[in-house]
Structure formats: C-alpha cells, structure tokens
Amino acid sequence: MLLEIGLWSRADQLDKGALVAASMAQNPSAVQKKLLKHAQVRLGFYAGDAFRDAVVDCLTGQFRETNIVEAFSRIVEALEAAGGSI
C-alpha cells in the first residue's frame, strides 16, 4: 500500500497489469521482485529517499525479526523523516 501511495498508482496498474496476470498468482517472489524494482527505481523520485527506504524495508521483510510495535515504530519514524524532507 505504501508503494501505491508513493507512486500515486495502484499496484494492478504497474507494468501494464503484469502483477495481476494469472501466472503471477503462483509466483509471489516474482511479484515481490517487480514491486521492489518499482520501489527502488521510481519511488525515491516521487516520494523521497526516506520514504523509498521504508517501503523497500517493508517489501524485503526487514521487520520480520522484530515485534510488531517496534516494527511499526521504525516505519513511522522513517515516514516522519520522509515528511520532514518535503
């Protein structure tokens, strides 16, 4: 969802709808790879580096080893930093 907000585009519209193709339903790692590509290549331009980094961290599972409260706190801090750079 953060990627969609930052790009002002729904995920199903990225790559001309490739993410919602039937072949992608069976390949979640391919979906993740495409979403990461958009985050890494485009998101910094549209939403800033701090926002991009927060999205990339979410997409790559950087918060997997943390409890939910700490993970949420880290995401909010990253987003506040992104907001402060506008």
Report on this structure.
The model has no long low-confidence stretch (mean pLDDT 81). The protein has helices at residues 2-7, 22-25, 28-47, 49-59, 68-84. 67% of the residues lie in helices and 0% in strands. With 86 residues, it is mainly α. The chain is built from five helices and no strands. The chain has one domain (2-84).
Secondary structure elements and pairings:
Layout: H1 2-7, H2 22-25, H3 28-47, H4 49-59, H5 68-84
> Roughly what fraction of the amino acids lie in strands?
under 5%
Distance between the terminal alpha carbons, to the nearest Å? 20 Å
| Low-confidence blocks of residues | none
Shape: globular
Helix content: 55-70%
Rg computed from alpha carbons, rounded to a whole number of angstroms: 13 Å
Arithmetic mean of pLDDT: 81
Helix vs. strand class: mainly alpha
- The helix-strand sequence is HHHHH
Please tally the helical runs, counting DSSP H or I stretches of 4 or more residues. 5
Tally the beta strands: 0
Number of spatially distinct domains: 1
Largest sheet: none
